[in-house]
Structure formats: C-alpha cells, structure tokens
Write a structure and sequence with these properties.
The protein has 16 helices and no strands. It is mainly α and 295 residues long. It folds into three domains: 62 residues, 434 Repressor (Amino-terminal Domain), CATH 1.10.260.40; 137 residues; 77 residues. The longest helix is centred in the last third of the chain and has 21 residues. It is elongated, with a radius of gyration of 23 Å. InterPro entries: HTH-type_regulator_Rgg, Lambda_DNA-bd_dom_sf, TPR-like_helical_dom_sf, Transcription_activator_Rgg_C.
C-alpha cells in the first residue's frame, strides 16, 4: 500500500474535524493556498507545516502514522523488535530475530546487518561473559559509526549495544555521549527502553571489569535522572543494578536486598512489563547462584 501524500492527509484531518478550509488553515495560510495544498499542487514550508500541526494538536509522528495508512513504518517495527529482543536477552529469541531479519531483502538498510550481527554476537557470547570475543565481533560496526559527529536515532540504538567494544579509557566519554544524545530523543518511539539498554550494557561491562565503584556512581547518577523524568522503568533498572552490587559486597543484609528485588519485580509486573520482569527475575536467580558458588 502506497503512502498518502501530505495534502491528502491534511484534507483527511480537516474533514475528520468537520472544519472548512478557511477555518482549518485560518491565521496560517489563505483559503486558496489551503485548497492547492490539499490537491497536492502546492507544497508547504516546514515552518508552516509545523504551525498547522500545532494548531490542531497533531504530532509529527502521528501525522506520519496516518500518512502511512495508520501503520507503523517497517523500520519502526524492526527497531521496536530489536530493542525488545535485546532487553530480554533470550538466546533463542535473539537467533530467531536475526534469522527472520536476514530474510528481508533491504541492502540499502545498513542497520539491518548491524542488528543481525549484534543479535547473533549476543546470543553466542553473552552468557559466557566472553567480553573480548564480543568486542572483536562488533568492532567493524563501530568503525562504520566512529567518525560521525552526530548519530541518528537508529544509529544510537546500534551504538547503545556496542559499549563492550570500547576500551575502558574511552568508554566513559562514549557512554556520556550516548546519554546526552538520547536526551534529544526523550519522547521519541522506544527511546526510554534504549536508555535502559545502554545503561544495562554499560553496567554489564563494568561488572565484568570489576569496576564496582563506577557501577555504584553511575547507577546513582542515572537513578536521579530517572526520578526527575518520572521514568519508572529506568528507576527499576537502576535499583536492580544497585541490588546486584549490594548482594555481592554485603554479607549481613541478604534478606533486605532480596525483598528489594521482589519489590522491583512486583512494580514491573504492575506496569505490565512482563518481558522485563522475566529477564530481571532470571538474571537475579543467576546472580545469586553465581555468588553462592564463589563463596
């Protein structure tokens, strides 16, 4: 199905609101201009187009959704599914995602191959904690994005999953750049979950490097940001990483820490974030078991 043209969507919005051309565009463009726009004989500047959307409380993303016949774009579905499967970190789901995406024939979409490579690499090495092998496997992707002064949203999604590639001296500045860039996309699509993914990936590498104080400092910093943003999901993730750290470094408060984790899991369940709740529950069980074996 072909996308509608801009003028066609504007006419649809006007007719749905039961307004005349004069009333719909009044104060922005003339009635004659409005007719020409709706019949696709006249184009709008970006400024005027945005003024029309603002007047009728229509966001740009909603306009694009309507323009695409009330469907997400294919790229939106791919990004959403990639973020979701990376958050759950289920080996079978990672491999299935890569397999299904590989069937799509979009050679012009370079991020498809990035997503496939990242998903397969995580499925191979994640639970074996083979950081060096993950790093080598994903270095070529980073080399493609290294020289860019600013990343697009999709590139940010990719880079958020490449944190294991960076050397410790370079890693902190890249992570700060990722979070600063994500601030620009604070209300865009799955950016809240991408933020969680970047935070989790960074903490994962810090734990493997035994940089425990950095885990604590960074988790507390991002927790403050999550509280300011009223971001419940990120708050849960920060508190969970702190619980992992406390469990590892504290001997006399295991019961209180377990109760805190149970509280976090309950919150996720209440928020209907079943996949995140399931991942966190499994991660906690593995973490506790691992610490017991080390005792």
């Amino acid at each position: 199905m072909e996308n509608k043209r801009t003028g066609e969507v504007l006419r649809e919005l006007r007719e749905n609101s039961n307004q005349s051309v004069k009333d719909f565009y009044g104060g922005i463009i003339s009635e004659h201009y409005g007719y020409r726009v709706e019949t696709c004989r006249q184009q709008l500047s970006q400024v005027i187009f945005q003024q029309i959307l603002d007047k009728h409380s229509v966001t740009l993303s909603e306009f694009e959704f309507i323009k695409n016949s009330y469907q997400l774009k294919e790229s939106d579905y791919v990004v959403r599914d990639f973020v979701s499967v990376m958050l759950t970190s289920n080996v079978k789901e990672l491999r299935l995602f890569a397999k299904n995406l590989a069937k799509e024939s979009h050679p012009e979409q370079s991020y498809y191959k990035y997503f496939i490579e990242i998903a397969l690499t995580r499925s191979r090495y994640l639970h074996q904690n083979q950081l060096e092998k993950m790093r080598k496997s994903m270095e070529t992707i980073w080399n493609d994005l290294l020289k860019k002064e600013q990343w697009t949203y999709i590139e940010l999604v990719v880079v958020s999953n490449l944190i294991c590639v960076f050397d410790s001296d370079y890693r902190d500045s890249i992570v700060n750049r990722i979070f600063k860039s994500l601030n620009k996309y604070a209300s865009y699509q799955e950016s809240a979950k991408v933020r969680i993914l970047a935070f989790r990936n960074y903490c994962e590498v810090l734990f493997l490097d035994h940089s425990y104080q950095k885990v604590r400092n960074f988790s507390k910093k991002i927790l403050c940001e999550a509280l300011k943003r009223q971001d419940g999901l990120l708050k849960c993730e920060c508190e969970f990483q702190l619980c992992k750290l406390e469990w590892m470094q504290t001997w006399g408060q295991k019961k209180q820490i377990s109760e805190k984790v149970s509280e976090i899991l309950w919150v996720l369940k209440f928020m209907q974030q079943s996949s995140l709740e399931r991942w966190m529950r499994n991660e906690w069980m593995q973490w506790v078991e691992q610490e017991i074996q080390h005792c």
